[in-house]
Amino acid sequence: MVNSKGLARGSRGPRGAYRRKPQVARGEKRGRGRPKGSRNVLTRVISDRGRYGGDARPKPTRQNGKTRQLSCCEPSAKTRLLTREHLDGRTVAARHFDQLAANICADLGGKDQLSAIELTLVEAYAGAGTILNDLNTRLLLGEKVDLEKHSQTISAMVRIATRLGTKRRAKDVTPNLQTYLRMREHAEAEES
């Protein structure tokens, strides 16, 4: 039995005072070897249930071969990011995005001529262009459009375009020396 101060009746410490009964959830054991008066994560969670709602007991995780208790605020699941491979690409927005990205890559000399950073910027520009296309269509239909979002999208597109460049780049189609010599030998062999 516990009194109003949370002390167990009949349980006396070495000096004769009442000891605090540990606040442990049902079925859980209190850990051993902690200094007197320290609170583990589990008792902290039990006292924080009102703050976090429901059964806020964190699940233990394994890190470097050791089991570590998560606090209430740490996410217990991994964050899963979506990629283009998760989409089927049949929506109008996806087709607009793909067409715009392909056109920009062609203007910049082909996808094989672009660096990874440039490809990411092309996708960012295509995404902003798709959003701008949606906003402009809504504007033409007479719907209310958030002008701040509209102007921010245009501003982002301008910044990306200045990084990528607005001029077309010629695709390098000149063969290397080995290819040129092979083509010349092949042409000479056909003439003979």
Notes on the structure:
44% of the residues lie in helices and 9% in strands. Helix 3 (92-107) packs across helix 4 (116-140) and helix 4 runs antiparallel to helix 5. Among the domains are: 39-70, no CATH class; 88-164. The chain has a two-stranded antiparallel sheet with strand order 1-2. The protein has a two-stranded antiparallel sheet with strand order 3-4. A hairpin with a 2-residue loop joins strand 3 and strand 4 (66-69). The model is unreliable at 40-57 (pLDDT under 50). The longest helix is centred in the middle third of the chain and has 25 residues, at 116-140. It starts with 6 loop residues before the first strand and ends with a helix. With 192 residues, the protein is mostly helical. It has helices at residues 41-47, 49-52, 92-107, 116-140, 147-164, 177-191; strands at residues 7-12, 18-20, 60-63, 66-69. The chain contains six helices and four strands.
Question: Would you kindly provide a brief summary of this structure?
Answer:
The protein has 6 helices and 4 strands. The chain is mainly alpha-helical.
Topology (SSEs and partners):
Layout: E1 7-12, E2 18-20, H1 41-47, H2 49-52, E3 60-63, E4 66-69, H3 92-107, H4 116-140, H5 147-164, H6 177-191
Antiparallel strand pairs: 1-2, 3-4
Helix pairs in contact: 3-4, 4-5
Keywords:
about 190 residues, mainly alpha, two-stranded antiparallel ribbon, 6 helices
